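Justification of computing resources. Each target in the renewal requires a structure prediction run like the one illustrated here; the chain below, 151 residues long, is used simply to show the kind of job we budget for.
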Amino acid sequence: MNRATISFSRATVMSAIVGVGLTVWGAAVGPGNIVAMAQGQSNFMGGNPSRMPSDKISTLRLKFPKGSRSNWHSHSWGQLLMAEEGHGLTQERGGRVRVIGPAQPWFTKAGVEHWHGAAVDEDLVQLTIYEGDVKWLEPVQDAEYRATPQK
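Resulting structure tokens:
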């Protein structure tokens, strides 16, 4: 596999994710926002966003050992993935196998059959966010998994 992409450390990726999360959380419910609101200030223009229920959203951090992958599957509301460590492979049904590395989030639309997992020779730590149901299908065959990856 060609890994001529920019590589970010796990700490860099996690710092970015945590930073965004804290910013959003802090703006919505953090003490700074409460103080700002009490003083008649806002961190937003044109109105303040309101927190939406998220009890139906699943967030997972999965470690795929090298050579492992999911079965073919689809999601009723789509799926957002990001490699935190290592490189992964993914494929939409009928498409090419793609290599995904750190700081390269990818989204699979609702109802699209796909699979994802670790590279043949490298473990993958993957962050996963999705809502709704997962429809699990047949296993990914070795020939499909080992097809030439495309960036």
